[in-house]
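Course assignment 3, question 2. Fill in each field.
Student: A.L.
Task: Predict the tertiary structure for the chain below.
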Amino acid sequence: MTRTDLPALTVGWIGTGHMGGALAGRIGRAGMDLTVWNRTRSKAEPLMKVGAKVADHPSELADRDVVFTMVSTSADLEQVIGQLLSDPERSPRMIVDCSTVSTEASARVRAVAEERGAAFLASPVSGNGKVVAAGMLSLVCSGPQEAFDEVAPVLDLLGRHVTYVGDGEKARLVKICHNILLGVVAQNLAEITVLAEKGGVSRAALLDFINNSVMGSVFSKYKSPAYVNLDFTPTFTPVLLRKDLDLGLRAADELGVPMPVTSAAREPVQAAIAQGRTTEDFAVLLELQARASGLELVSEDVAVDDGLGAADEGH
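Answer field:
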């Protein structure tokens, strides 16, 4: 639904994969002037249904007021920003990166953007495509306060909450901390689920109790269907989780912070990758834990509420 209270900003979006496409769609449905680009054009074309124009090269977005990026790796980010700014005569006023990348790559991109007169905001996100569809995504943002204040109404379109944490790359560290917690909780949830099942308790029953206790969370709820019914359709792979755990452990080394639990949680993620479970969801940690415990899992084939409700097509 078109919004009438949004700033008159022209928006570009680079990276329309599973997450990027869902996020850009929210901007398009709000009625903003949106142009998108993706390396594989066919993944960007569905956004034409919500009013977006599709560019043939990132440099075509350089005349936009603000350009968002959502890519997989630090190298991808540096490459697309280089392409976006390849015309020395044109650059967007603001660039907002929603990817999870290293602080070093982010700082390099920030320096390049600022040299061209573009304010750079790091704004990584928490959630997956289903969370985006439910309107429950959260974002953390760092960079120039003035740029954040101007683009905040557009960030508000993307989810339910945006936290500004200061200048520079602070948002990158916050997102890395977030994903460390994700990995630790996922492994521990796998361990207790297997423990309960070996003691005769169904996974559905255990998770129903956890989700309705003080220990329940949005995360434990929306992963419950995967754990109960063994649906490992990828939302976030073990490879991506290992990348973030490694980023966190590197930051911990640099800052002199011991991280024994994080180090332990990395091992089963690495084991999943070593066993070839690289394209499935990181919920495969449950299956690895079960096998290590002498338990063969079968789907419980029951309906489980993921806590996300119906898709929120507006804002």
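Instructor remarks: The mean pLDDT is 94. The chain has eleven helices and nine strands.
Grade: pending
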